[in-house]
Amino acid sequence: MSEDLWSERDTNPDAIEAALREMLRERHAANQALAPARVLNLVVVVDRSWKGEIANRLERVGRYHASRTILCAVEDGRDTLDATAVMTYEDSASGGIGVMRETVEIDMGPEHLAGLETIVDPVIVSELPTVLWCPHGHDDAVCALRGITDVMLLDSDDPSDADEALAQAQDELSRAYVVDLAWLRTTPWRERLAASFDPPARRGSLAAIDGFTIRHQASSTASALLLAGWLASRLRWDTRPLVLANGAGLRGRAYTHTSRYIDIRLETADQEVPGLAGITVTAEGYALSLDRASGGLRAQETIPDHGEHTWLVLGASRGEGGILGEGVRQALLRDPTYGPALAVAREFMAHVG
Amino acid sequence: MQSAGVATDVEQDNPLIEGLERLPVRPTALVIFGATGDLAHRKLLPALYNLAHEGALPERFELVGVSRRDQEHDDFREMARESIERFSRRRPDPKVLNGLIDEMRYVPGAFDDDGVYEQIHKVLRDFDTQAGQELNHVFYLSTAPQFFPLIAGKLGAGGLNRERDAETRIVIEKPFGYDLASARALNAEVLDVFDESQVFRIDHYLGKETVQNLMALRFANALFEPVWNRNFIDYVQITAAEDIGIGGRAGYYEGAGALRDLVQNHMMQLLALLTMEPPTAFDADRVRDEKLKVLEAIVPPAVSEVPSMAVRAQYGPGTVGGKRVVGYHDEEGVAPDSRTETYAALRLHVSNWRWAGVPFYLRTGKQLARKITEIAVTLKPVPHLAFQSRGSVGVQANQIILTLQPDEGVSVSLGAKIPGAQMRIRPVNMEFRYGTSFMSESPEAYERLILDAMRGDATLFTRGDEIEALWGIIDPILTAWAEDTTTPIPQYAAGSAGPIEADALLERGEKWRRL
Prior knowledge:
The complex is a heterodimer.
Chain A: E1 2-8, H1 13-30, E2 34-36, E3 41-47, H2 51-59, E4 68-74, E5 82-89, E6 98-108, H3 116-120, E7 130-133, H4 139-145, E8 151-154, H5 162-173, E9 177-180, H6 181-184, H7 187-196, H8 200-203, E10 211-217, H9 221-234, E11 238-239, E12 243-244, E13 250-255, E14 261-269, E15 276-283, E16 286-293, E17 296-303, E18 307-314, H10 319-330, H11 338-348
Helix pairs in contact in A: 5-11, 9-11
Chain B: E1 28-33, H1 38-53, E2 61-67, H2 73-87, H3 94-102, E3 105-108, H4 114-131, E4 136-141, H5 148-157, E5 168-172, H6 180-191, E6 199-201, H7 209-219, E7 233-241, H8 250-275, H9 284-296, H10 306-309, E8 310-316, E9 318-320, E10 323-325, E11 343-349, E12 359-365, E13 372-379, E14 399-405, E15 409-417, E16 425-433, H11 434-437, H12 445-455, H13 464-483, E17 491-493
Parallel strand pairs in B: 1-2, 1-4, 2-3, 4-5, 5-6, 7-12, 8-17
Antiparallel strand pairs in B: 7-13, 8-11, 9-10, 11-12, 13-14, 14-15, 15-16
Helix pairs in contact in B: 1-2, 1-12, 2-3, 6-13, 8-9, 8-13, 9-13
């Protein structure tokens, strides 16, 4: 990869946009096999002291880079804009086309946030969807950019209060499409549960589920709630708020339309990485457990009169970088099941929060 | 709170699959015949690893390799590891790789040996016992084509063709037949053992994203369909050019030639997708019904008409990419008097209401000027031109170019005014490139197709009647070329755009697009 660089102190959006245009023009003139990526804009608003860490996270998203990333770094006491624009491109040795991506870092002060739209709007590629990610809060930036935001990227596992995080996600969902990294942490679990109950012989067990336990890292309560909310919403259970279980997680019940109840437990697990550690689903003597393991998920199934079977469900860990990359990619898709799962997750927290 | 949502009756559908990108695949045991061969080595095993990496394999997945090579399970596992490490499109995660490889089994033996099938039967039963359920079975025939009927027959004789509560499928690699008669015979032999719904005839071209995108482009855009007919389209050229020779594949290529190698399958599939009517739904039989209809509308030439609608040629010595290369006859393993074509060009007509009178030109060849696969649709010129063309290249007919490789994308050529005081026009391009418009890397075609076969989705596989229709179009050309043993085969210089004789196919003064 190679890159072209432009920077200017005490600059303005017009100058940044002009610099980007000029860099594109010059690079294309030098090598016509280069073409700019045109998928989406990603606007990130961060505290300047954490800018490096966020930039590192964005570096680790694998192949799911936004076409144009605008990193707004907010620093107390600053009243001017300093900007750096970097154009990264592949040296196309094979004779094919090379793709160019642009990253703009703008250092700004808190007072710029109220009018942030007037800074960011001229710099984004106007015909592309724009994703906004504010990992450090910055509600004023969220408000200011609402008019140009198509997708809100957030992580309900980030704030320490899961109820507050889910409430915020629901609030944002009423205004824009939301991609929630906490939800994406549940994806392999949802896929595997769907697969486990997909064979016709197993399908009937879905209607007979009488309990499930979700094990999660302490900081990933929102992920666990979203997975529980997904099961409940997909299976159309009548849900009730969960209660704290003597410091050992959350407990509660949901009910089927025949008033049969389902025991629900969310338990914290000793796990280094964020996300879920395991799930056990029971249905009238049948039990399926999925737990994180080396190289995938360790599955254990108990079938009445057929004993116990254990196997490895293959799949590489995506890591937090991979989940962020997945978040960027998901901005182009639409998942109709997140909203209902989120609504139930909030209902679960009605008495806890 | 009563949950909102779109869940359906849990007794009937699986409500958990809504919204998932990766749909479940039932627990499956995959048996690869020819598991030590080149295709397994380069494509199938790496594809399986990538599916495992992404968590896309069935939750319970078992792999059995079958081949003549006498070796142990561990030898096969080591071979599989090397294949994956060398050819996977991503660096393997050792944990996933070990998880995949550790459970692989190997059954050695000749394909005509009943003992092999007994062993396969036993291994599959063991898997079922371990799993506590009957796994689906997929038999993948990645062998030399002469073994296809033998293996299918032996699977039937061994009772492996129809299973109990689970499903059984057979995937058959190309070439499916050598000509119309052999394709019919092979179909009959396979369908004597398996139902059509169990048979997945693979053409990996159909698994490519850009080939599938042909349908999206045509049927998801109001822009193109109104002009997609004889009223607006003047002619179409489909090109599959390669800038390499036959490499070490003389043994295969001498018996195949360009017509069988690329035209009968890949290029004719492109033609079918380009010209078929919109299917009412995107499912296997509706799509394949439409493809069959349009293939049946291509009237096969009489043998006597072949010289006027088809050209064959062989590459001679030349320069490719600055390197001197030998001609076809000097390639190792090629007979000095070989008449096998390394280049084929055809002119076809689709005799239906939509396409009557539109010529479709197909060309493919080895050792050409560059590697490119594209479909060029040329529209008719505007009926009246008010602009002068003096001082410029003038107004040219619009073209829609669908590029499949090397850079997947679509471009549309338009006439635009050259800046200046005069109204002078030149063609400009509007381009869409996959690489710039999507973040995700296209999966290997084999990943998609293996998964579809395990899932039982035959949309991207060739149905029996379709394959016979494809051979039916090509068969008279094969016959004519086989019968003509005296006319000299035209030669073209390696690194060139092909033989000059191909120009004679162009009906109305058109030109072949520059490679």
